[in-house]
């Protein structure tokens, strides 16, 4: 094994790992804190969190698209232009964040009722959402900041900024939920405070550069963003459907799904640390015209992702009797968790390869292919099984069978694209 590429990957992936893991790790803390309030509160957090994710993660192109464009410019020796990508992405984040916050306030209650039905679960989810939605602009500013800094191969400042914000949230969450007596709403208050701290730090990183809006750059970002938004919609349609089916199965099922889904999200972003390194290194290699290096990096990252995924699967298989009880003592929730747990464990090696190759293709700006492949995987794999599961009463086992098929189809498509080599197009971003 060539040590030099591995060192370059680790130099970017290791600082990116805690950045990627910080938000889902905070959500795991949030889930554990709220879980001890009761099954209804835990289920409400699950419903509310999945809705909030739709409003924020649809614009992940602010991070991933900005990384791809900035990395190519950085690789071509145009660092000033790479930073300009970050400024324009931040303007887009501010505008979109306030728009989504307003729309979310209008539709929080009806959406919660669609997902959870009428009753206490939907009411509690609505209450949490109305507070948590105020943090959407800060979430998007953080996405944009992470994007351009990764593109110029600076993963250390995002590490400090994100850990500071999430550390504030993690400390405040149990204090506001239990000590101060705010209950479920306390977790949302803690979230907003931490998000504001993180966003302020990312804005501070741009204080010495020209802040003038550049419509031409923003238009180019939106063109790339269009395909990434459609890709995100496919993901979120799957996860919203899964939460809906779980919520309509039982309070225990939706609580168990929330616990395992947050662990899945956490490990997905841990594995995605390799994808961050792939975006930056592959984008830079293609920006300076070296498609051979980009292909070699893609091959190595695929192998590293497989090894990393196997290791995580083994660890969580061994901890099946320990981890669920850290999140809840509710007997109904604990009884449902095994129906999802072993799917979650078995999928880790698949996820390791898929997420690494996602990073390679995103770094190459191959968003159109990723959009089409993800939509096909959702329409042919996940969604049919999810809704069949509801009709047939298969519960969480049906939900996670759908996720398994979704991931296997994605694995086949990205491996085929990688082997074709058609993604390795050199030159600066258009």
From TrEMBL:
- What GO molecular function terms would the record report? antiporter activity; xenobiotic transmembrane transporter activity
Cellular location of this protein? Answer: Membrane
GO CC terms of this entry: plasma membrane
Q: How does the record classify its membrane topology?
A: Multi-pass membrane protein
Q: Which Pfam families match?
A: MatE
Instruction: Locate the transmembrane regions by residue number.
Output: 45-65, 86-108, 128-149, 161-182, 188-207, 228-251, 263-286, 306-327, 339-357, 369-388, 394-413
Coiled-coil annotated residue ranges, if any:
none
InterPro entries, alphabetically? DinF-like, MATE_fam
The protein's UniProt keywords, in alphabetical order, are:
Membrane, Transmembrane, Transmembrane helix
| Family from the record | Belongs to the multi antimicrobial extrusion (MATE) (TC 2.A.66.1) family.
Question: What is the protein named?
Answer: Putative MATE family efflux protein
């Amino acid at each position: 094994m060539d040590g030099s590429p591995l060192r370059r990957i680790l130099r970017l992936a290791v600082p990116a790992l805690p950045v990627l893991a910080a938000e889902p790790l905070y959500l795991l803390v949030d889930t554990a804190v709220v879980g001890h309030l009761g099954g209804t509160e835990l289920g409400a957090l699950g419903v509310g969190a999945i809705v909030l994710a739709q409003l924020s993660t649809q614009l992940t192109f602010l991070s991933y698209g900005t990384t791809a464009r900035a990395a190519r410019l950085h690789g071509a020796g145009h660092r000033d232009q790479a930073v300009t990508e970050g400024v324009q992405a931040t303007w887009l984040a501010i505008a979109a964040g306030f728009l989504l916050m307003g729309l979310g306030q209008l539709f929080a209650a009806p959406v919660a009722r669609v997902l959870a039905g009428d009753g206490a679960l939907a009411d509690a989810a609505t209450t949490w959402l109305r507070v948590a939605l105020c943090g959407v602009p800060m979430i998007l500013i953080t996405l944009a900041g992470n994007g351009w800094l990764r593109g110029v191969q600076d993963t250390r400042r995002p590490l400090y900024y994100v850990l500071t914000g999430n550390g504030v949230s993690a400390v405040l969450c149990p204090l506001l939920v239990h000590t101060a007596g705010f209950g479920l709403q306390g977790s949302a208050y803690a979230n907003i405070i931490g998000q504001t701290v993180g966003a302020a730090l990312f804005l501070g990183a741009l204080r010495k550069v020209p802040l003038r809006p550049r419509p031409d750059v923003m238009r180019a970002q939106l063109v790339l963003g269009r395909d990434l938004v459609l890709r995100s919609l496919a993901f979120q349609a799957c996860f919203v459907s899964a939460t809906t089916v779980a919520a309509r199965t039982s309070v225990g099922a939706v609580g168990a799904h929330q616990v395992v889904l947050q662990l899945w999200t956490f490990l997905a972003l841990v594995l995605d640390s390799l994808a961050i390194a792939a975006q930056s290194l592959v984008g830079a290699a293609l920006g300076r015209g070296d498609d051979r290096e980009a292909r070699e990096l893609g091959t190595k990252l695929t192998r590293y992702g497989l090894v990393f995924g196997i290791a995580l699967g083994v660890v969580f298989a061994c901890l099946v009797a320990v981890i669920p009880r850290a999140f809840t003592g509710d007997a109904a929730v604990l009884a449902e968790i095994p129906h999802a747990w072993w799917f979650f464990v078995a999928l880790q090696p698949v996820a390791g390869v898929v997420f690494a190759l996602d990073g390679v293709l995103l770094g190459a700006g191959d968003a159109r292919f990723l959009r089409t492949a993800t939509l096909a995987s959702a329409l042919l794999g996940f969604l049919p099984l999810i809704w069949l599961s509801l009709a047939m009463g298969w519960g969480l086992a049906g939900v996670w069978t759908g996720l398994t098929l979704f991931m296997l189809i994605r694995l086949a498509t990205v491996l085929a694209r990688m082997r074709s080599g058609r993604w390795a197009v050199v030159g600066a971003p258009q």
